[in-house]
Amino acid sequence: MKHKYQKILWRFSPQDPIQTFELNRVIFGVKPSPYLSQRVLKQLSIDEDEKFPIASPKVCTNFYMDDFVCSVEDVGAACDLQSQMVSLCLSGGFELVKWSSNSNKLLQSIPEDKRLSAHVNFDTDNTVKILGLKWEALEDYFYFTVNFPDRPCTKRALLSAVSTIFDPLGFLQPIILSCKLLISDLWREKIDWDEIPSSDICEKWQVFQSQLGKISQLKIPRHLHLSSKKPILLIGFGDASERAYAACVYCRSESPSGEIQVSLIASKSRLSPLRTESIPRLELCSGLLLANLIQSIVKTFHPLVDMTQVLCFLDSTVALDWIHSSPHRWAQFVANRVAKIQNIIDPQQWYHVSGKENPADCVSRGLSPSELVQHQLFYSGPSWLKSSKDEWCLNKHTISDVSAHLEVKKGEIMCAVGHTTEDWVDKVSKNFSSWSKLLHCIVYVLRFVRILPKKLTIELCDLQVAETYIFRSIQRSHFVEDFKCLQKGTQCSPQLRKLDLFLDNDSIIRIGGRLNNSKLGYEQCHPILLPKNNHTVNLIIDHYHKLNLHTGPHLLLSLLRQRFWILSGRSEVKKRVHRCNICFKVNPRPTTAKMADLPSFRVQASTKPFVHTGVDYCGPFSVTMTKGRGIKSSRKAYVCLFICLTTKAVHIELASDLSTEIFLNCLKRFISRRGCCQVIYSDNGTNFIGATNFNALGELYQLLDSQEYQSKYLEGLNSYRIHWKTIPPSAPHMGGIWESQMRPIKTHLMKVIGLQILTFEELSTVLVQIEALLNSRPLCPLGSDIDTLSVLTPAHFLHAEPLKHLPAGDVSQDTHVSRYKLLDQLVQCYWKRWTTEYLHNMQKREKWSSSERPVRVGDLVIVLQDNQPVLSWPLGIVQEVHPGKDNICRSVVVKTQNGCLKRPVVKLCPLPSQ
């Protein structure tokens, strides 16, 4: 723990200044404090293991937080342990105090100031409190004193009083069960917390309280006479009544004088479920409770006791019959509990006992305090436990009725004839996405069919057996004929003949190869043959891929070849690596959709230019408002571009700022000079979001996104009967016709003005000249024919002639009618040439000539984000798709953790595992 995080503010008197103190000890109230204290003790035990061999193991097993509790067989061993434990703890800076023992000799060797202080004694006896129990140290026995406060008999008071009885070992379990039953009756009355229950419950509670003082008469010996030199036996009993079931465990040991001693170790009880269950089912539940209790006791007493030194008794012949048979025969309730019992204790260790000799009977029914004090059967067990084991009459079980068979699982016999080539391992493996999980599942299957022994944990040898079984099953289903040939000793199929196959001792097909004389291991020289296009093999490839930090295909194939030979291994490994989501997130590849057909307004002749118009901004550019010496202040100006979507004619306006009024003025000038248009297309301004750190583009985005701009702009458009359409966000390629015109405008400006700052009028003049140049560019590539003098340009549609052209001939003799007809013919000629010359150049799809797998609703995708690291791109799920007229989807709505976004499919990277 870092000391700098353990600081407090303190002053010793109101007059002193506040000081900062840093705590250099493990403090109370901090979450990691319990772990740190135990971890320090464990490390101290490891460091001092050789120096203190007796005390070191006890540190890890006998410390309960800061309390040390231990027992040994003789006083000499206790003195040695105490001496080493004190020295070991002092080596780490810890001092053990408050020593207490049932041995005067040991206490005399301990200084008085290190013994338990007299002022913490209870009553007049030498007592200490351990886990809520009271221990009389000199006479070495446990006892209880419970005093309930005098309070009215209410639901709150009753629950509060019962919860004060802390009995972790179950020495008072019959009394506690009586309290549980009383609380159960109290709960059925459905009264409030401070409401007095019925007179029957109040009377029972008053009788219980009046007898509670008799608990102090109980004296329970602590010493169990456990010794590694004498045989020890754990004996458990289970029983059930209509309202509860219980279990108790006894230790049968031999004292140094040879006397047999039987002592209660622990007991537990449970109330029956609210749903009515049969008595045999509750008896089975008591058996499971007993098995779990014995398992925890064996872990505590290890290595003095193991599970072979256990005997269990029930007085229900039906429950014993269930335990002694296979779980699969019974209904689900019985089968589950029988399986758990058999996994803990061998069925051969379960026996029958009569109800009168079953000490768990009193626990399952409950006793009053006065009855418990006189009930020796509960604390000492049946009398025959103290006799010789040869005199015991151990009965497995005797069935006197057919109650056990009422729980037989009902089933229907169905016969079907079918033929399949799919092995069951392949079928099961399709339900798993992990090689490790599949292996564990096969281990449990092999245990169920008794190929593997049943154990509490899965060991390495179990996994190896499961692997062998899986490989053998795969090979027998995919290499049927080759397997038969190898068994007969004949040649395999021509495709596998070069691999020199053979069967090993486990009947697994391996590669013979030519590396027998190398120093490689057996598995590297003779790898296991595996098929291609198999789900289980894919799980193995994925497992090695993740195990080796998502390495590339070449190294991954090399690692696999050290144990496996996968047919078409290179292509199989590449396929799996390319489908890895983790690798794909590091290097995502956007999907593509086939480039759409050009819209009708791009390929059909119009009545005039600018009927369908695109608009966009570029800039800012620095300008001055006036020209003169000493004028150094400059301001920003922006280029507003209008482009005809049919003829590529451009119209450029210079905007002095980004206000709504200025843009509307630009629109008015455009309409006044070029005529009114029907539809205006533009992006929605989101292409400026990534540049909001730059003040100029941030202002431009704020303009396009502002409510004032939207309302005034739409109002202005409606006054001219213009319809405004926008392209999807983050899809500049859909506005490529106006995006492509921005580059030549900026190029001409850099070439002409460089770093000079022009006046507003000078920049307007330059932009008009650039507009003339752009409108004079040929729409079609120039041919090599020397007779081709006229080239079609956007200016032909604007002025019936190019803006940069040779002087025309003398037309003063022409009449007005003939001149009008000539102009009309010229316009028709230009549109005809536009159809025959220009449109044919638009046939090719420069990219996205074909579609990949279409994006569907529910697909998981990575959303491409400009100007952000790849690993920070968000993950989303497709909510809506918007197919075009050709039924190809090019824009979708994606739901991410930050909300829903509309994006083109070229900005999406679908995960390859789909």
From TrEMBL:
GO terms for molecular function: nucleic acid binding. It comes from the Eukaryota. Coiled coil: none annotated. GO terms for cellular component: DNA polymerase complex. InterPro entries: DNA/RNA_pol_sf, DUF5641, Integrase_cat-core, Integrase_H2C2, Retrotrans_Pao, RNaseH-like_sf, RNaseH_sf. GO terms for biological process: DNA biosynthetic process; DNA integration. Gene3D superfamilies: 1.10.340.70, Ribonuclease H-like superfamily/Ribonuclease H. Residues 605-802 form the Integrase catalytic domain. PANTHER family: PEPTIDASE S1 DOMAIN-CONTAINING PROTEIN, PHD-TYPE DOMAIN-CONTAINING PROTEIN. This is Integrase catalytic domain-containing protein. It comes from Cacopsylla melanoneura.
